[in-house]
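Researcher: We are triaging several targets before committing to wet-lab work. For this one, the compound of interest is nicotinamide-adenine-dinucleotide. I'm pasting the protein sequence and the ligand SMILES. What I need is the predicted three-dimensional arrangement of the protein with the ligand bound, expressed as structure tokens, so it can go straight into our comparison scripts without reformatting.
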Amino acid sequence: MATSHRATRNRTSRKGIHPPQAYSSFLETYVTVDQKLWGFRATGAKSTQLNHRKRVAWARIRLRRFEQRLTCIAISVNLYAFVTLPPGFWKWSVRRLFSPSKNHSESNMTTEIPMPTAVFPDLEGKLVLITGAARGIGRAIAEEFAKQKSHLMLVDLDPSIEQTASEVASTYETKTDFRIANVTDSAQVKEVIDQAVQPYGKQMYVLVNNAGITRDGAAMRMSDENWDAVISTNLTGTHNFCKASIRFLRKANGAIVNISSISGQIGNIGQTNYCAAKGGVIAYTKALAIEYPGLRCTAICPGFINTDMTARLPSDVWKYATAKTKLRRAGEAWEIAQAVVRSATAYGNTYAPCAVVTVAGGMELGG
Ligand SMILES: NC(=O)c1ccc[n+]([C@@H]2O[C@H](COP(=O)([O-])OP(=O)(O)OC[C@H]3O[C@@H](n4cnc5c(N)ncnc54)[C@H](O)[C@@H]3O)[C@@H](O)[C@H]2O)c1
């Protein structure tokens, strides 16, 4: 205390200034500290600045010492743990450190396309008929089978099917034919099938019923026209193609893959017609599998997929739909196409005569 009084006296007498009481006591405190630490006295504004710099340097040194102590403690704790914990624990830790990440939020959020490496030899050179193949999921399915060197018959109401067929044929160098037909017209469908199977000894290996439409609206305001259009395209169209091809598919020990929808499993607002049709497709597929045990029958249920069908929906619907998925994104057509090919091949599908495969980014899980 005596020292600090002296310091204040020195300072004031040399400068001839009498600082106010509060400032004076402030200086006294620091002067005392400085004296203890550095062995000098604060004199005037210049030395106050100097002291400040020294105080900062001192604080840094203390911080470094504190860090050194912490490091020592950490090393001691680790050494103690290393000595006391069983060797099994360390083996487990090392395995965890070097094994691939199982964190789904990191690993599955990607939209990067993994190049398919699987080749299913049973699909090569076999007739595969795909409806609604002009664009979207149907086109992606055609491309995926083309990679397997299947022979394609692409069917669609839209005349652009011709261009799709020629593009697929030239890109993948596989035999690709097309027909413009309406899946709701059973006579037309029969004609398409009969012509398609002729070059293949009246055999067809895979039928993919993909053609589909939506006509959304509240149930109480739904027009008969919209109801009928959706049921006849999605459900009756599927039946028309199955009915006309079953005998040729059975001859080839083939497969039927029907494109249903997540809406057919969990329902969706404004889609009573579509949900009824797609739910019907699932039930229809199961009934087929029971009726024709030799056929591999699969209903694929896509979630919210990035195609022309969804492109026209407002951004609010996109936000709502993608938020309902676990992966927080819409699916891509190729992701459905890969599931279709895996369901159609006899490889790896020897004990699943009927399956309902959901490819919906986890939308079906709820929550
Ligand atoms: N896009 C999605 O989010 C989604 C989700 C679940 C299920 N699906 C189903 O997947 C299938 C393909 O959907 P997409 O998104 O590629 O749709 P899309 O509209 O892009 O393609 C549908 C194709 O079907 C054809 N088609 C429509 N009516 C037809 C008819 N009567 N006869 C012949 N061809 C006809 C269209 O011309 C078109 O080429 C549909 O069955 C759809 O219900 C789509």
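Researcher: Any quick observations?
Model: The chain has 14 helices and seven strands.
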